[in-house]
Design goal:
Blueprint lengths: L1 H8 L5 E5 L1 E2 L7 E2 L8 H10 L4 E5 L5 E6 H13 L7 E3 L3 E6 L4 H11 L2 E3 L3 E5 L11 E4 L12 H10 L9 E5 L12
Antiparallel strand pairs: 1-3, 1-4, 2-11, 4-9, 5-7, 5-8, 6-7, 6-10, 9-11
């Protein structure tokens, strides 16, 4: 519940639910999804009655996601760190690294993902965020946790695209824990 409350405090609308792992071209739905909220009372009620529920958030409002195979993702993080770049939240499910990026920049990300074998999740997708507990195999965990500082300045396409284009790609692409939605440094406090 602590992680869900933290995300809601950052205005990331959260839902209690489960997201299926999607592999190459697979699809699956969301089970037991409720309307996303940033209301702490609803978060307390939902996770109070279902403490083991996943934290599911829609992409496209507060952030979009760029996902890539873990070896490429680690290389991207190394290059960004070497350049002294601002590092926003990054999560991993073991096979893939997923960078949270500024939302509503879809066209350039979609084109880059198509040509460079990345996965772009903009509006209309749901992802499962780390809950703050000990991750199991394939469960999301933060590589660079969100903080009060880094959630306010997510990278733009122009900042990351040159780095992403400069690195070799590997295949096959790993799965990313997400599901399509049918309708629609850094300092400060860290998550547990």
């Amino acid at each position: 519940m602590k992680a869900a409350l933290m995300y809601a405090r950052w205005n990331w609308p959260v839902m209690a639910g489960t997201a299926a792992t999607l592999g190459d071209g697979g699809s699956s739905g969301i089970d037991e999804v409720v309307t996303p909220t940033v209301d702490p009372d609803r978060v307390h009620r939902w996770w109070g009655s279902r403490p083991d529920a996943n934290i599911v958030v829609p992409t496209g409002a507060m952030f979009d996601v760029i996902s890539m195979p873990s070896p490429i993702g680690r290389a991207v993080l190394d290059v960004l760190a070497d350049r002294g770049a601002w590092l926003a939240p990054v999560m991993s499910d073991g096979d893939a690294l997923s960078l949270l990026v500024r939302p509503r920049q879809g066209s350039p990300w979609t084109e880059l993902a198509r040509t460079d074998g990345l996965t772009y999740l903009g509006p209309g997708h749901l992802i499962t965020l780390p809950s703050g507990g000990t991750p199991f195999d394939g469960q999301a965990r933060w590589v660079i946790p969100p903080t009060d500082a880094n959630v306010l300045r997510l990278p733009q396409f122009a900042e990351l695209a040159p780095v992403l284009r400069s690195l070799p790609r590997s295949s096959p692409r790993p799965g990313l824990q997400h599901a399509d939605h049918p309708s629609r440094s850094n300092q400060s406090e860290e998550l547990p």
